[in-house]
Each structure stands twice: as structure tokens, then as C-alpha cells.
Amino acid sequence: MQKNPLGILLGAAVMLMPFAASAAVSLPKTVEVDRGEVEPVCNENNPEWRLAQTVDGVNIQESLRCSPDNPSAIAAQVKGTNNISMETLMDTYYAADGIIKKNDMDGDGDPDLIIIKLEVAELNGHSPDFNGLVPTFDIAPGVQPGMWVFAPKSRGMATNSFVGTDANPLLRAPSPVIRVEQGDTIWIQLENTHYFPHTIHLHGVDHPWVDSSGEGNDGVPQTSDKFVLPGQSKTYEIRPRVAGSFVYHCHVQTHVHLAMGLVGMFVVEENRPNNWVQTFNVGAGQVRHPSKAILEDYDSEYDLHYHAMDKELHSIIQESNDPRLIAKKMNREYDMTDSTEDYHTLNGRSFPYTLRESIIVAEPDKNIKLRMFNSSGETLAMHTHGHKGTITHYDGVEHNPVAQITRDVYDLAPAQRNDLKINTTDDGFHSYGEGAWIFHDHREKGITTNGMNPGGNVSALVYKKYLNEVGLPKTIGESIMPLFTKKFQDRKLPVWQNIDDWNSLGEIDADGYVAPPASKMAAADVTPGSADIQVPEDNSFRNLIFGLFLGLCAYLLVVNRTKLSAMISSVKGGS
Amino acid sequence: MIKHLSIAAFALALSAPVLAEKEFEDHTQMMNHGDGHLMDMTGGMVMGQNTDVLPGGCDSLAATKEITVHAGHKYAEKFPGRMFAFDVQEYQFEPCTKLTVNFINDDSVRHQWMMHGLPKYLYPKGMFHLEVTGPGKVTGTLIFPPGDKTYLVHCDIAQHMEKGMKGQLKIGKGNGDLPSIPGVTAYVIQDDYSDKTDSESISDTVVEEIAEITDKVVGNDSFFSGLTIIGLAIGLIIAPLLARKFKDMSAGEIVTYLFDLVKQAIDMAMKLISWLIGLVKKN
């Protein structure tokens, strides 16, 4: 028999441990999260398309971005699908009757009757056959909101190939920029290939309220127009007398149809002789065949279409197949007044994909024309790093040249357009010199994708000197590679993983970790005003009695140590 | 003068009858681009045409057949919840049959009758494809290979197959049925028609937030506080006194003693209350 009062006391102390401050105070360890598949920053999309070239007599400007437009498609957009070689046409996805240009009625060397066909395509839609989306269009790695777009009339399959589900290049966000010449006769034929009714309203574009046959021409079902039903077509007829940056959009259930993506830029270029304008700028961005009037004052031209999406709205078409069910959910259950915008895009994509398609390439001492358009639900505050731009036009109307404003934040209300002149003269005012300067929304949510930063509508104005061989900015900051993963977009990757040798801001591995009791009694955080939610419980009496009980127990243990150790020994001996 | 002429030309162009209902067009003058690809400039197209080459394994043509297929919104009427359809959903032919398809589109947009999975040495990309912008008709011919197989026929325009424009063509006995064919087979992924509301409602979020704030306000709920220490000290001090009091008593006796104490306390309280009642009565 062994007397060990100290052991008993220590044992008792151990038993009381959970109630006392602990000596085990280390925090959970850091782990490195596997990034999963990392996409190449530039997907090397036909680098030969980047060169300045002439296709079927159409001069096409150099486009140094990573993912350039197809020169054959540009030739079709400039000359019409009826005036190019069969070889060029077959190198595109255009339907043979997609863009018809004819009738040089004034004999100035360019066609004056332009027939433009538009279909309606659903991107990232539902399939009743498999658990996936069709046809897919990623706005960022793995980010696929359901969208509707107006699309140039194409031929063949909706997808790019037989094996994948990615949409063919004509089926993409945003709805294509339409470019016409002032004074031309334009027939816009809407072929409604979608399962809901739609119309086209030409916002800001000079158009008669009724067409030559007396039918509605304004696209508004409540006043002038019948719905263009699924499978039906309708021609809108215009001869715009005034040039400028305008808009076209669906006017059926406009609140949701516009937000779903049925909205695009409509540019009327000033009339000039022999002026073949690029009828579509698919995916917006650089205009590789600018009009005569633009080239008089500018070296290059870019269309910048900003949009935003509420993921709740954009998932409706992915959850059901029955059009009646989709209509019910979208028109009656979805309440736009409760909505929040989660995805912020520039030309249909979010950062970092914007770097592939929507960078502005600059050289010193040049003038660049930017046409900015906001189709989101909130006012944007676009900011250019390194440059102060001059707003030359508001909503397509030239501002008095003497009163034009030069600034570095350009506010754009919903549906508004600003035409901007970027002068790259390094004078400390218009430009601060060469670099890879970003431009972005300065509402901070605009630079997130579903709340993850960096994302959203960020892109960059990059001087050639700072452009690498695949058309990406030569950045000297942190690597953007982790952004090209689904893990990052899915919020699974710590934003600052491996910023230093020992990954001090890495992921916490708290698996199996039990926090020790706090070592300090923090006073209840009672802030005025919130106290009325629930009065803090008074534990004083309970704790006093508990202490008393512990004290008595301790005394009994000490007094009866002999008996207890005898008892423990007998138990031990008996075993 | 030129100006006046051009205005006249504009007026003429605007009054042209192109805006009237488009007339039905039979696309019979398509240009042959080789490899079975025929196309015209008004939206008619055939790909994978084969009128004369026998597929391997066929000694001769088993039959020569001709069908007419209609496509359009109106054919979805008999299938609620669909938006586009062919007039017929199922076809069956013998192996090595030469089939001519007259594809009539009754809508005013593009539709397709596209078939995949044919032998690639005869049909580029293994595909036979008819496409026409309606209202109009396009005609194409192919020869089926031997063997029992079920071919998918569909319109590949975004969401047209998903919303009903889908059928199956069995050669011989076929090799099973395809899903989601209107009136024939069910969806793989069914729609949810229940009238449930979203579980993550705003009121739920508010409740969660209140719970969070409450936790903060109530703060430390542990048994251990400054008062516990005071209790512990008192316990240690009075323990020897109690020990002396209860010395030589058995556990039962201690309990009895404690009960006695409580009884005395209650008696005192009762006495106090009755005294108070007496006071009230007197007044």
C-alpha cells in the first residue's frame, strides 16, 4: 500500500482541467491547398490571327491580345456573308445569309442596304439528359451563369466540336456590337430561336415607330409590337440619320431579359465615301476594321460593354427544363427588387479572362477611342490607372468640345454610354507614361466575382513595350497563375497561399483540433442598443455554489487521503 | 439630282415587299462543295450526303425509302412542357437501306435534322445533317451501314433538343432507347414541380443573425468565474468547521441533520407567513 497524497491532488487537478486555463495553447497548423488544374494564362488561340492582314480585300488591324478575333469572321462582318469567298465563309460559323450587304444606292462605293440576322441563344442552359450545362461559356474558370444572348445567325452546331460542350465562337456574351453607317437602310431580322417570346428595341437609334408596312418598329409589346414568338421572325427597319453609340435590347419582361444578356451596343458610324463598317464586333473589344470617320481622329477603337448578373436569376434556367416552369420562376417567383449582382463582366468575361480578350493595347503619342456601355443595374465608376481620359460623347451625343471633361473616374448610369478619348502623350496629365495600367470599376464589388477578388470587370491598358509574345501584360507583380483555377473561383484556395517561405497566411487545418479554454475572462460584449435583444444571464449565484462545492471536495480529498489511497491500492490489488 | 435619285432609291428599297410573310422556299439549287456538303445562300444545307457508296458489310441496298419530316413549334403542342418538336419521334429501317429525307421546316427560323454516329470513312465527322431556315424544305440522302443500332436525330440549335426537338432512328432492332424523346422516353433528370419555397428565406437569415448577436451579448457562460473562486475559498474555510460538526456522524445521520435544518428553516418561514397573515386579518 502506497500513500501518495500528491498524486491524488494532481489527479484531482487534472480532472478539473476542463474548467481551468490550459497549458496546451498551440493553434491549428497551416496546410497547403492543392490548386488542382491550372489553365494556361494564355490559351494560345490561333496566334496567326493576331497579325495585321488583308482578307478578301478587307484590311484588318493588328490585334496583339492573347485571344484574337478570327480574320475570316471579320471579313464576313465587313463585306457581308454574300460578298466573300466561299473559302472565307466556310472558315467561319456564319450562316450564308447571316449578313447581306448590297445596293450602293448613292454610288459612294459602299453598300447601302444591310440585312442583319439575329438569333437568340441560351448559354450554360439545362439538359434533361445529363448533369451538366449546354452549350457552355465560362466567364471565368469554371464560372458558368445561365445567359441569353442575341447571336449572329450561324450554321451547323451550337457547340465548337462533337466532343466538348463549349459554345461555338458566335454564341457568346455579350450580345454582339452592331455597327452600321449613318444613312444606310438597315433591316434587322430577329429570328427567335429561343423558347420564350422576345423583341428588339433600338435604344437611342433613330428609328420610326412603325415600319413601312405599318407594323410596330419600337419593340415594346405594351405599345407597338406583337411578341416575336418562338420559331417566328420579325424585321425591324431603320435608316438612322444621326451617328453615335447606342443600344439594342429585348423589351419583353425587360427587367429579367435584359439582365439575362439580351442587350448589346449599337453603333452608328458617320457617313463617309467607300465606308465599309464592321457590322458585328462579336465579343466586343477591339474593332479591327474601324470606320473611315474614326480613323480620321483615332488610331484604334475599342467597344467596352459592362454587365452584371445576379446568380439567383441566372441559375433559374439551369434548374428546370419545362419552359412553363422557367417562366413561372423567372416572371413570378424571382423578385428583382431583392436582387444583388454577383458577377461583373467586361465584354462577357470577368478577370482574369478579360486579360485574354479585353486589354487595350497602347503606344505612346496615339489617340484611342473607347466606347463604354453599362448594361448592369447600378451606376459604374470606371477608373483608368495612369491616364485621364476625355469624355467626348454622352449617350452618343457629342459634348461641346470646349466644355468636354477630362477625368479619371467615369460614371456610367444603367444603359448609359460614354465615348472616351485616351491620349497616350506622356505629359503627366493625359498619360503618366508607359506601363501595364489596369482599368476597372471603383465600386469595389465591381472588381469581384461572386465576392472573390481579384475578379469582376478589371482589365488593363497595356503599352506594347509591356506586352509579352502571347499578348499578355508583362507583369512584375505577384503571379496571376492561381487565378486561372476553378479552386480559386470556387473560394477553395487561400488568396495569399505561399506568399512567403513558410506560408504564413495559408489554409488552417483545424481537423481534430480542440480549442483550449480561453485564458482570459472576456467581459460580455454588451454594446448599447443591442442589449435589448436578450439580457445577459446572471451566473453569479450558480458559480458561487459551484466554488463552494469544489472547496468542500478539495478539503474532503485532503482529509481522507489515507482512506482514498488505501481504496485505490485495494482496487489495484484486486485487479 | 443625285441626292433626289438616292432618296427615291431609299424609298423604293423601304417599300420593297421583303417585310411581307416569307414565302415557302424549296432549296433545290444548292451548290455542291464536295464531301457530300451542299449549301445555298438562303439558309439551305446538307452535310454527309451519300447517294451511291455502299457502306462496308452491305452487299446490296436492302431497300430504298423516302420520308418527309416536319419540324416546328406547332408539333410540340401535343407534348406539354416542350417548345419545339419534329412531327414524328421514331423511325425504323432495315440495315443497308438508302434513305431520302425531305426535311420541311414550318417555322421562320433555322431547324436541323442531325444524325450522329455514322461510319466516319463515309460521312465526315460521322454526321448526316439537314438544315433549313423556314418556311422551307431541304432534301438529303444517305445509306445506312449494317448492324442493329439506334441513332439520335435532333436539332442542335441551343436548347432545341432539350426543349423537345429530338427523335430516334432504329436500324434493324436498334440497340436500345434514347432518353427524353417526347412521348417515348422519360427525362434522365426530372423537373421538380413541387411548390416548395426556398428554405434559405430572409427571415431564416435574420433569425441566424439574432442568434449570433445573442451569443455575443450573453458572453461568458462558463461555470468558472471570479465568484467560483470566492466560493472555493469559502468552501475551504468552512470545510474544517463542518467536519468538526459532522464528526462521528454516519452519512445517513448527516443527511438527516441537513433535512432537519431545512425543516427548521421552512418552519420558521411558515411561522413568519402566518404571523403576517394574522397582521393582515387584524386590520
General description of the model:
- The complex is a heterodimer of chains A (575) and B (283).
- The model of chain A is unreliable at 10-15 and 17-23 (pLDDT under 50).
- Chain A is α+β, with helices and mostly antiparallel strands and 575 residues long.
- Chain A is elongated, with a radius of gyration of 33 Å.
- The two termini of chain A are 14 Å apart.
- Helix content of chain A is 17%, strand content 23%.
- Chain B is of the alpha+beta class.
- Chain B has two domains: 21-171, Cupredoxins -  blue copper proteins (Immunoglobulin-like, Sandwich), CATH 2.60.40; 226-282, no CATH class.
- Chain B contains four helices and 13 strands.
- Chain B has helices at 2-15, 202-218, 226-245, 251-282, and strands at residues 25-26, 31-32, 38-39, 44-47, 63-72, 85-86, 90-93, 97-105, 110-115, 128-133, 136-143, 149-154, 166-171.
- The longest helix of chain B is centred in the C-terminal third of the chain and has 32 residues, at 251-282.
- Chain B is rod-shaped, with a radius of gyration of 45 Å.
- Residues 8-20 of chain B have low confidence and may be disordered.
- Chains A and B meet through strand 5, strand 8, strand 10, helix 8 and helix 11 of A and helix 1, strand 10, helix 2 and helix 3 of B.
Measured between the Cα atoms of the first and last residue of chain A, the distance is 14 Å
Q: Main β-sheet of chain A, in a few words?
A: 8 strands, mixed
Count of the separate structural domains of chain B: 2
Coarse morphology of chain B? rod-shaped
Q: SSE order of chain B in H/E notation?
A: HEEEEEEEEEEEEEHHH
Q: Helical region count of chain A?
A: 12
Shape of chain A: elongated
Structural class of the helices, strands and pairings of chain A? alpha+beta
Please give the CATH class of the largest domain in chain B. Mainly Beta
Q: The biggest beta sheet of chain B, please? A: 8 strands, mixed
Tell me the strand order in the biggest sheet of chain B: 2-3-4-10-9-12-13-7
Task: Give the CATH topology of the domain at 48-284 in chain A.
Answer: Immunoglobulin-like
CATH level-four homologous superfamily name of the largest domain in chain B: Cupredoxins -  blue copper proteins
- Number of contiguous helices of chain B: 4
What integer value in Å does the Rg of chain B equal?
Answer: 45 Å
Give the low-pLDDT segments of chain A: 10-15, 17-23
For the termini of chain B, the CA-CA separation is: 124 Å
CATH class term of the domain at 48-284 in chain A: Mainly Beta
